[in-house]
Design brief:
alpha/beta, Rossmann fold, 5 strands, binds thymidine-5'-phosphate
Length: about 200
């Protein structure tokens, strides 16, 4: 059985977490081994880098280098070995987040990110990317009730509009990889759409 790599994306507040957990449950119920992980993070080194990226002020190149360094470790230690064993890897964010946040949000050079992506991922891309698309204004209301915001969560609405445009650009560049989900619905409706997107590709038959 070959491995399956699914990433989940969206602006902060888009509500990915419960659906990732539900999908992990659905795959396990069908007898698949599941690795549920996240970026930046997923290994001790990458979790250390995550704390720096989420809390310390730095320029956009430094931020990009740190998230790609974390990704390199995460791929080598966790993602590639799990895929080689035939597991399902469910990853909360992957490199589309770098293009959306550092590329579009922070207006860092898209071509430099493409070069870093090539070096770090050596062609590895998710089989499917589920993009929870939510208007920045709705996400802001949801985040207002949330825990103490990190560096990104405390950005103004205009930042998240740019981030969303970055996701749209990535989808345009790889339309077959993306499933765009309308996240501005009830959790039940969003879950129905997530399940349909996964099943439409024959992944949860
Ligand atoms: P999370 O809160 O959904 O786990 O995501 C962590 C934050 O890090 C989120 O605000 C998005 C941001 N991020 C980047 O800026 N660049 C990246 O490459 C990744 C993976 C996340």
């Amino acid at each position: 059985m070959s491995g399956l790599f699914i990433s989940f994306e969206g602006i902060d507040g888009a509500g990915k977490s419960t659906h990732i957990a539900a999908l992990a449950h659905a795959f396990k119920a069908r007898g698949r081994a599941v690795t549920q992980t996240r970026e930046p993070g997923g290994t001790p080194l990458a979790e250390t880098l995550r704390r720096l990226v989420l809390n310390d002020p730095m320029d956009a190149l430094t931020e990009s280098l740190l998230v790609f360094a974390a990704r390199r470790d995460h791929i080598g230690q966790v993602i590639a070995p799990a895929l080689a064993k035939g597991e399902v890897v469910l990853c909360d964010r992957f490199s589309d987040a770098t293009f959306a946040y550092q590329g579009a949000g922070r207006e860092f050079d898209w071509d430099v990110l493409l070069t870093l992506e090539k070096w770090v991922q050596e062609g590895l891309q998710p089989d499917l990317t589920v993009w929870f698309d939510l208007p920045a204004s709705v996400a802001a209301v949801r985040l207002a009730d949330a825990r103490v915001p990190d560096k990104f969560e405390s950005q103004p609405g205009a930042f998240f509009e740019k981030v969303a445009s970055g996701y749209a650009r990535r989808q345009d560049q790889a339309p077959q990889r993306f499933a765009r989900i309308n996240a501005n619905q009830s959790p039940e409706e969003v879950w129905k759409d997530v399940l349909a997107a996964v099943q439409a590709r024959g992944f949860l038959a």
